[in-house]
């Protein structure tokens, strides 16, 4: 690859993030004085420093060869979807259903075909979760949809 | 209280049955997560944090500490048998451990790792006891300026020492500091960077941030490749016995590694990972046969393993005596202490001797457990490496969710974990260090408070950092830490240009 795109993209993003934070904080919060620093002083300084560091990461990367690492997009999607399903279901469906759904969703991206092992795994994880968190630790969280 | 009285007092705390059980449980769980590649001590400690609400503060801390040093033992197992470091600290152990295993000497490599870890921990405890009293005495001379300067030095040290690209490490620290600003400003009550979200009023949840960066991101990174390594060969107890020559090769590296680790562990900002890398470099340099390194040199295991265990014990020095966590795991420990209403600092040795000395003695007991148990258990650890990762990671995801959810029953925090996990994965892919982000996040509010206080005391005169000798020392050290790598880069660029 001709350029170190990882560093160019992240460096650029961090620089913009720094400018954004500094700008937002400068507009919304009081800077104060050196003697009596306001709530804006620390974030504005940090934003400026981050902008400088971002530039220092991105600029040299234009003249440097880099390698593009394989991005595990499928795996990322599967895991994030599982987490969001937990957030969505937990308070509505209770831990038993949620744990089963989350395990199944997460296991979809595993590098091994077959449905049976996924179902067995979901059942095992759900049982284990219930045994540890409800039976042993007696945590007060919804167990079933109707036990709220 | 003299040291001897303290140790006696600590023994009475550490030998309480429930403390003993939690110590054993923590150490074994630590070994377990250390052995399994893909889950580190960080994720395990974060998972256990909510559980510690329900047990006594001594038992809680002893258990979390057990996970921490237990993982150092376990990390070596996967490094040696699979060339897959179970923990970052044991990455260097792959260099000589795996070649030894290929030569059919896996048992000796494992024995070396364990005995070196044990020796490193025990000597680390001696250093901890000596340094803690001295530092706690000195800490009364610390004012706001010293604290701020010391923490800034710690952050800069963590990002420049041993880092290939200091600018990337520093950027992560600064992102962490910015995330630490989110929430209600203590001095003015202003809501900073919350964008109207009431869930963010208390700031970003430490558990959610740590779970996202270490649990979720590492799971994503490991799903595809974790099962490609074949299962390891069996290791019998007989194979563990080293030859007389092996033992001779261990003693000096263990001594050097322990000293090095003890020193760097006690400095805020440099932790056990750096210590193990430095120890490896040192062993290679002092060796009469450096060519043996990388091909199965016992010294290449003994030194680093002693160093990282010694460092993980002395890392408690700044955390307990100054209230400044040196690495992200210590930051979590600090969080656990504060949850239990204990404010670490110079007064802790006086105010909570049971806590301090109990912890110290439990380190010794826990390490003894590990040494005695790990030799017979080695067969179990080896067979555990046969568990495919595809069975483990969905369970890890469920545990992460429940761990975060149980902190305050918030599904908002789970959504945060998802977002942070995705970003954390992308960052790690581009070789940014998530550990430094977390360190910045924890130290940020402490630095800001002390900086503001120092400037208030000096009436806005920044010279306060140069007029006070201790603070001035930290400032000079910080400048050196920044300037040395910059000079190196400039010199390198020059020689490159000359070569072209």
Question: Could you list some keywords that capture this structure?
Answer:
heterodimer, A: 148 residues, mainly alpha, 4 helices, 0% strand, B: 500 residues, two-stranded antiparallel sheet, 21 helices, transmembrane (chain B)
- Assign an overall shape of chain B: globular
- Estimated structural class of chain A: mainly alpha
**What is the topology, as strand order, of the major beta sheet of chain B?**
1-2
Low-confidence stretches of chain B: none
Helix-strand topology string of chain B: HHHHHHHHEEHHHHHHHHHHHHH
Number of discrete helical segments of chain B: 21
User: Oligomeric status of the shown chains?
Assistant: heterodimer
Name the helicity range of chain A.
55-70%
Mean of residue pLDDT values of chain B: 84
Helix-strand category of chain B: mainly alpha
Alpha-carbon Rg of chain A, integer: 24 Å
Protein name (chain A): Tripartite tricarboxylate transporter TctB family protein
Domain DUF1468 (chain A): 11-142
Transmembrane segments (chain A): 7-29, 41-64, 76-109, 115-137
Keywords (chain A): Membrane, Transmembrane, Transmembrane helix
């Amino acid at each position: 690859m001709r350029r170190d795109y990882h560093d160019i993209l992240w460096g650029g993003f961090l620089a913009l993030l720094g400018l954004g934070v500094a700008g937002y904080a400068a507009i919304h919060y009081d800077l104060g004085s050196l003697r009596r620093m306001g709530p804006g002083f620390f974030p504005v300084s940090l934003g400026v420093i981050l902008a400088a560091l971002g530039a220092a990461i991105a600029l040299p990367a234009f003249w440097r060869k880099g390698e593009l690492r394989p991005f595990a997009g499928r795996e990322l999607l599967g895991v994030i979807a599982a987490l969001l399903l937990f957030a969505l279901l937990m308070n509505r469906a209770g831990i038993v259903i949620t744990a089963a759904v989350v395990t199944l969703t997460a296991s979809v991206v595993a590098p091994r075909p077959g449905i049976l092992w996924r179902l067995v795994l979901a059942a095992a994880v759900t049982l284990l979760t219930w045994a540890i968190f409800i039976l042993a630790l007696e945590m007060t969280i919804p167990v079933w949809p109707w036990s709220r | 209280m003299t040291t001897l009285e303290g140790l006696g007092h600590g023994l009475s705390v550490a030998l309480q049955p429930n403390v003993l059980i939690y110590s054993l449980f923590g150490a074994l769980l630590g070994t377990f997560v250390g052995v399994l590649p893909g889950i580190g001590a960080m994720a395990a400690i974060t998972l256990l944090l909510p559980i510690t609400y329900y047990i006594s503060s001594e038992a809680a801390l002893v258990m979390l500490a057990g996970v921490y040093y237990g993982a150092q033992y376990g990390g070596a197992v996967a490094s040696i048998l699979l060339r897959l470091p179970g923990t970052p600290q044991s990455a260097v152990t792959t260099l000589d451990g795996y070649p030894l295993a290929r030569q059919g000497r896996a048992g000796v490599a494992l024995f070396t790792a364990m005995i070196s870890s044990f020796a490193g921990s025990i000597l680390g405890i001696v250093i901890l006891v000596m340094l803690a009293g001295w530092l706690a005495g000195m800490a009364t001379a610390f004012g706001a300026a010293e604290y701020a300067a010391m923490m800034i030095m710690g952050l800069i040290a963590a990002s420049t020492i041993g880092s290939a690209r200091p600018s990337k490490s520093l950027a992560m620290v600064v992102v962490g500091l910015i995330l630490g600003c989110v929430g209600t400003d203590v001095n003015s009550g202003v809501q900073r960077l919350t964008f109207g979200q009431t869930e963010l009023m208390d700031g970003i949840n430490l558990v959610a941030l740590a779970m996202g960066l270490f649990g979720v991101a590492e799971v994503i990174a490991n799903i595809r490749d974790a099962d490609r390594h074949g299962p390891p060969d069996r290791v019998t107890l007989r194979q563990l016995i080293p030859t007389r020559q092996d033992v001779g090769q261990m003693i000096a590296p263990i001594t050097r590694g322990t000293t090095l680790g003890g020193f760097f562990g006690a400095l805020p900002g440099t932790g056990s990972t750096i210590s193990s890398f430095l120890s490896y470099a040192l062993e290679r340099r002092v060796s009469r046969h450096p060519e043996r390194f990388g091909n199965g040199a016992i010294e290449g295991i003994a030194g680093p393993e002693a160093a990282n265990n010694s460092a993980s014990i002395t890392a408690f020095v700044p955390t307990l005596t100054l209230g400044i966590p040196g690495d992200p795991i210590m930051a979590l420990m600090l969080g656990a202490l504060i949850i239990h209403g204990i404010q670490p600092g110079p007064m802790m040795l006086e105010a909570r001797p049971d806590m301090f000395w109990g912890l110290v003695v439990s380190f010794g007991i826990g390490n003894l457990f590990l040494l005695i148990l790990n030799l017979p258990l080695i067969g179990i650890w080896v067979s555990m490496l046969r568990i495919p990762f595809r069975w483990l990671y969905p369970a890890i995801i469920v545990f992460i969710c429940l761990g975060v959810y149980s902190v305050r029953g918030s599904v908002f925090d789970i959504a945060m974990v998802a977002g942070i996990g995705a970003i954390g994965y992308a960052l790690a892919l581009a070789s940014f260090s998530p550990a430094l982000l977390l360190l910045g996040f924890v130290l940020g509010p402490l630095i800001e408070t002390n900086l503001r206080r120092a400037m208030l005391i000096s009436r806005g005169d920044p010279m306060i950092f140069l007029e006070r000798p201790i603070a001035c020392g930290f400032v000079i050290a910080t400048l050196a830490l920044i300037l040395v790598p910059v000079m190196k880069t400039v010199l390198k660029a020059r020689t490159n240009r000359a070569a072209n």
